[in-house]
Amino acid sequence: MSSLFSQRRQKHFMTLLKYWRLVFNDHFVIALFFLFGALAYGYSQWLPQLNSHLWWTRWLLILWFTILPQLGRLATLLKRADPIFLLPQVKAMENYLDHAYRYSVLLAELITIAGTAVALPFAMTTERLTNVDLIMIVITAMLAKENWLFTARKSISLRWSAQRWRSRFEYWVNPLIIAAATWLINPFAGLAVAIVLTLGMRLVYRHLTIDWRAAVKMETDRMYSVYRFFNLFTDVPSVQGNVKRRQWLSWLVNWLTIAGHPWSYLYAHGFVRNVEISGLVARLTIVGMLVSFFVQVSWLNTILVILFIYLVATQLMPFYEQYADNVFTHLYPVSTEDQVTDFRQLLAKITTIEMLLIVLASLGYQTNWSHCALNLVVGIIEVFLLVRFYFGTRIKKMNK
Q1: pTM score of the predicted model
Q2: What whole-number distance in Å separates Cα of residue 38 and Cα of residue 59?
Q3: Is pLDDT larger for residue 165 or for residue 191?
Q4: How far apart (Å, rounded) are the C-alpha atoms in residues 193 and 179?
Q5: Could you state, in order of their start, the residue ranges of all structural domains in the chain?
Q6: Closest CA to 144 of 103, 187, 184, 185
Q7: Helix 26-46 vs helix 298-316: angle between axes, to the nearest 10 degrees?
Q8: How much is the average pLDDT of 202-220?
């Protein structure tokens, strides 16, 4: 079973690597570089403004260390056919799941350490912490995550898989109790609570015989969430986009549609009803608004506004080929030039809305109207250049 897991882990790495190369292309890496750099710079500028007498800082730390264990799930790498072909190896599956558990803990603890490292400067600014306290906080966070993964492990066992409400409750309540003891009492109390919960879970939940149906479903859901992320940047065969009837957005379809233009009608409906593309644009816009609102360094704020406008436009452009494989669209008595014109109109309208929202958010908590006006002028110029010139170069590459 150990060799089986090793083979699947290696194959899993190769699959992820194939998609990582497509996702983290040059443009996206540069965008991430500016984004994380801006967030780090804004974070460092914000910390000196804090003090130890703010009532909300501890509650924010409790919230952070409650959410942090939710990142990183149990990776079993099970497949749909395993309940048939591995059914005689039920007892040996405990060894397989032990390897999967250790693999998941290793990756998840790296995420936990990184998340804890992000929060510690804030904690050191608002709390009086010694070096020993910092060590205790890191260990406590790692134990909370290990406790979360053990909860996931027992949730795919025959005895406990039917009680999903219990696992969902423990996913959130256990980290909440640990975080509350850490920040409302002291780090030693938090560590003690984490140790007690970890040992108690292992005493209560024993004899974890695998429930095949629950285990396969958990892994299928996990991989689907991973593939959905990749599908935001490239086509993933195992992910099929969902289409929803959004009647409350009919006004948006009418606004995006040009009368008498069939491609405009098709693109407008496709954008609004396609969960993947409209969700991506909405999420990038919201993130851009939040970042531009909190980062108030003038030159950096303008760069971020430019960056997010560019990201939304470039992620929307591949939607031009959404219907390329539909044979009926090639029967339209409409020229390719009309198709390009209709999509350019759609791109211009959506990018303009996104630009206005991000520029408005760039006012920030300091309400700097002059800087907002500058961002508006820069945004209008960028939208014009992206729609008029950059989209034309992308079309030429798509048609090669």
Answers
A1: 0.73
A2: 25
A3: 191
A4: 9
A5: 2-231, 247-398
A6: 187
A7: 150
A8: 89
